[in-house]
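Data card: per-record layout.
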Amino acid sequence: MKGTNMDAADFRAALGSFATGVTIVTTRAPDGSDVGMTANSFNSVSLDPPMVLWSISKTALSQSVFAAAEHFAVHILASDQEDLSNRFARRGENKFADLALGRGPGNTPLLNGCAARFKCRTAYRYEGGDHDIIVGEVLEFDHFDRKPLLFHRGKYSALAAGMAGAEFADSSFAFLLARAHYAVFRDVHMELKRIDISLDQYFALAALGARPMTAQEIQGHGAYYDRSFEPSDVEKLIEKGLVERQADGPAGNLALTAPGRQTMVRLLAIGKDSEATVLGQFEPWEGQWLKSALDRIGSKMPGILTR
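The structure for this 307-residue chain is written out next.
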């Protein structure tokens, strides 16, 4: 789907292919060669306009090409494409040899047989420590309703290594979750302090990133995360120029302004860079398993906010 024919529900379903997935990102180099790499730092940013992001290490061989690329494509791999994932994860190999390719915007190479594909125009680039964070506006996407590529299940047991003898307080589930949350969210929290936005207001901005809604709706979603959203929070976000009252929508609807959306993209980019740094300590399958497990835990709770 592309352009004005893009349906938000279909776009959301295509994004859902990445619940525990692996991606290959491709682009066309200035010299006309095809460039691609395996990446698991992919994430959705916005449904309207449809936007996604991913990050690339500054030491990657293809970093300079992606840093300058105006278009790229993200391929969520299907369950039978493990060999393709391994091929594009290796350095220096002729990765596109003998592959039947399509072409997307900017003559971007398109791989076949995927669970989903997102053809993007580069919208923003951010410095993210030892990574570049690339945000793309989705111009077209394909959703093939195939099972995404999963990690090897036989490795699950390796996660238990080293736990014997640990003190209960330091190995309890709640303690470990809280500590992991701090590690991933620390940089975002520091940025929130810098721009004088509270956690409650941050969660409100995140909710509005999905769609316009009333303050009461935001409060209902935030309550699940132990967040409140008071009239004073509304006024502060309006004063900062991040939120506005919709004139042409349902009465009382709030919506992100252009600066508000840019702020959310920046905060999300900072969060994704922190996530990439934390997960970079593990094998790719370990990070995928962890995200899948956390998603299963949260999705079983009533009232969870889903997109």
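Known properties of this structure: The mean pLDDT is 80. The two ends are 19 Å apart (CA to CA).

See the next section for split statistics.
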